[in-house]
Specification:
One of its GO terms (biological process) is isoleucine biosynthetic process. Its cofactor is Mg(2+). It comes from Spartinivicinus marinus. Its EC number is 1.1.1.86. Belongs to the ketol-acid reductoisomerase family. The chain starts with a helix and ends in a 10-residue tail after the last helix. The protein is built from 23 helices and nine strands. It folds into two domains: 189 residues, NAD(P)-binding Rossmann-like Domain (Rossmann fold), CATH 3.40.50; 270 residues, N-(1-d-carboxylethyl)-l-norvaline Dehydrogenase, domain 2, CATH 1.10.1040. 60% of the residues lie in helices and 8% in strands. The chain is α/β, with parallel strands linked by helices. A nine-stranded mixed sheet has the order 1-9-8-7-6-5-2-3-4, with helices on both faces. Helix 12 crosses helix 23. The protein is globular and about 70 Å long. It binds NADPH dihydro-nicotinamide-adenine-dinucleotide phosphate, the ligand CC[C@](O)(C(C)=O)C(=O)O and magnesium ion (2 copies).
């Protein structure tokens, strides 16, 4: 039963809007609350491996419980854990001694994993998640003596590790399930876990399972993955159809998302737009306004379906149908012309902006729309910021490595499903828009020789960019991220 839908409206609204930016001083105790405790992570995939490595490097005692077949067959999860020197065992061997069990298996498996693990957990232990789907959308009930917490990095697992190694962290939402905090210790444990990941250096929000689930699903389906997938496919097809070399087009997109969104990460939409010449900025602004008009109903549909539970219902139907949609969409993505092209050509950093005006417009439109629609549904600005603007560069990093394949491997299966769902609706939606697009905004750059523009219009555009709420909250939140490391 859908837990969110079972709650009275008053509690739904309270949970949805729960979000408090935590002060760095609240983490002065570091990992103390988990020091000397046995942490057993179930699953050693994208989040499991990288979270475990950070926790171990932060001085915590981490081991991995894997299903028996993974151990017997020495599967990748077993290799991930053993190659990194962790103790690995079956549920029966490790779970009974665990003080904290972190469930980092795919969302689809949560019910079955929790049903196997729960009877083995000792009295008073803690169960942790990195995404609340199982609790919120499936209504999983956890034994009364068990504390249930969430530590959800707003980021792919690979970047959880990379940012930690750079001496930083990734913004993370923490929460305690309101039905399961028997000893009132959940928050201290979640804080210690987040500190072990390095997240306190980037910013931790004290939130709720519900706010995390609804905002996480929305971010990943739309701007974070859906828009980048849609944009990659459409921009590549357009360039090649207009005679641009496929190797150049492929590189412009594959690396372009990372270069463009690095500007976003450092200085928000304002800085990203400021990287364009005056005429190109005005062009990108106009394109993004048009894109926002076309895509807004689709963003709203995704948000509505996430809030009502319609999205989770249809995804769970696909789980029950052996992931037919997910696997078909995954295979189709592998066959797209963009995915198959080889990226070649030398491209200067500035050229990614000058020749990628449409990509800049897509990022701006996607970030603003995701942020606006999340906030209009009761999600707090800080949370909406992390799920839109902040995380986009981290996802773009994955495309820069090995295109859409890498992005879809690294993100969770839930995010991958939502990404394809969005892209399948968005690609046809933008057909007429793309028919009017020329190589001046994607591939070659504007043909104008001068940087001259009408002053009044430039002021109007700059004001609209800078006054957007995502910029105002972003300015404040980035102020807390002074340790952030540059990657370009
Ligand atoms: N991917 C990401 O970057 C993010 C993920 N999350 C959340 O983190 C959680 C983990 O996701 P993610 O890291 O993507 O997962 P992965 O798909 O990368 O890893 C899954 C791990 O679970 C194991 N596993 C799979 N099926 C089962 C099963 N039936 N029983 C036991 N173990 C199983 C796999 O090992 P094997 O098959 O060998 O047994 C593998 O080690 C999810 O809740 C997700 O929403 C949150 C933020 C970002
Ligand atoms: C972007 C998708 C994500 O929510 C994440 C990496 O934060 C996921 O589920 O993978
Ligand atoms: Mg996420
Ligand atoms: Mg997710």
């Amino acid at each position: 039963m859908n837990y969110f839908n079972s709650l009275p409206l008053r509690i739904q609204l309270e949970e949805l809007s729960k979000c408090r930016f935590m002060d760095r001083a609240e983490f002065d105790a570091g990992v103390e609350a988990l020091k000397g405790k046995k942490i057993v992570i179930v699953g050693c995939g994208a989040q499991g491996l990288n979270q475990g490595l950070n926790l171990k490097d932060s001085g915590l005692d981490v081991s991995y419980a894997l299903r028996e077949s993974a151990i017997k067959e020495k599967r990748q999860s077993w290799k991930n854990a053993t190659d990194n020197g962790f103790t690995v065992g079956t549920y029966e061997e490790l779970i009974p001694q665990a003080d904290l069990v972190s469930n980092l298996t795919p969302d689809k498996q949560h019910s079955s994993v929790v049903e196997q693990v729960m009877p083995l957990m000792k009295k008073g232990a803690t169960l942790s998640y990195s995404h609340g789907f199982n609790i919120v959308e499936e209504g999983m009930k956890i034994r009364d003596d068990i504390t249930v917490i969430m530590v959800a990095p707003k980021c792919p697992g690979t970047e959880v590790r990379e940012e930690y190694k750079r001496g930083f962290g990734v913004p993370t939402l923490i929460a305690v399930h309101r039905e399961n905090d028997p000893n009132g210790e959940g928050l201290e444990q979640a804080k210690a876990y987040a500190a072990g990941l390095g997240s306190h250096l980037a910013g931790v929000l004290e939130s709720s399972f519900i706010a995390e689930v609804k905002s996480d699903l929305m971010g990943e389906q739309t701007i974070l993955c859906g828009v980048l997938q849609t944009g990659s496919i459409l921009c590549f097809e357009k360039m090649v159809a207009d005679g641009i070399d496929a190797g150049y087009a492929s590189k412009l997109i594959q690396q372009g998302w990372e270069v463009i969104t690095e500007a976003l990460k450092i200085g928000g939409i304002s800085n990203m737009m400021d990287r364009l010449s005056n005429p190109a900025k005005i062009k990108a602004f106009d394109l993004s306004e048009e894109l926002k008009g076309i895509m807004r109903p689709l963003f709203e549909k995704h948000m509505d379906d996430i809030i009502t539970g319609e999205f989770s219902k249809t995804m769970m139907e696909d789980w029950a149908n052996d992931d037919k949609n997910l696997l078909t969409w995954r295979a189709e993505t592998a066959e797209t012309a963009f995915e198959k092209a080889t990226s070649s050509a030398e491209i200067d950093e500035q050229e990614y902006f000058d020749h990628g005006i449409l990509m800049v417009a897509m990022v701006k439109a996607g970030v603003e729309l995701a942020f606006e629609v999340m906030c209009s549904s009761g999600i707090i600005e800080e949370s909406a910021y992390y799920e839109s603007l902040h995380e986009t560069p981290l996802i773009a990093n994955t495309i820069a490595r090995r295109k859409l394949y890498e992005m879809n491997v690294v993100i969770s299966d839930t995010a991958e499903y939502g990404c394809y769902l969005f892209a399948h609706a968005c690609v046809p939606l933008l057909k007429d828009f793309m028919a009017k697009i020329g190589t001046d905004v994607i591939g070659k750059g504007l043909t104008v020789k001068s940087n001259s523009v009408d002053n009044a219009r430039l002021v109007e555009v700059n004001d609209a960019i800078r006054d957007h709420t995502v910029e105002l909250i972003g300015y404040e939140l980035r102020g807390h991220m002074t340790d952030m490391k540059r990657i370009i």
